[in-house]
Design goal:
Layout: E1 4-9, H1 14-25, E2 29-34, H2 42-52, H3 55-58, H4 64-68, H5 71-74, H6 79-88, E3 97-99, E4 105-107, H7 111-114
Parallel strand pairs: 1-2
Antiparallel strand pairs: 1-3, 3-4
Helix pairs in contact: 2-6
Amino acid sequence: MAKTINAWGLKKCSTCQDALKWLDAKSVEVNFTDYSVEKPTKAQIKKWIKGVGGWEKLINRAGYTWKGLPEEDKQDVTEEKAIILAQNHTSLIRRPLIEHQDGSITVGFKPKVQELF
């Protein structure tokens, strides 16, 4: 039986595009959601934060979106504030975000994640 995963990201993101091609070549069925089109719910983001081990691992603080936020948005970030930021600026969420068949969640597509397939 082929693996099936749920993945989120941005269709125009080159990392997401590369990951989807790689997964297709490995015969992994991907249910992909572009979160610029279908925004994640607060409950989903909370689940992802828990799954990756904290909001700091979910939110990309090195990208253009983070750098473009007002300073007050970047200060004193709590989990609740991170959830609101992620809902309002989905490109802050590291991508691709993958929910694996075993229930684990990964972000990005480095070799460590590729080894899971």
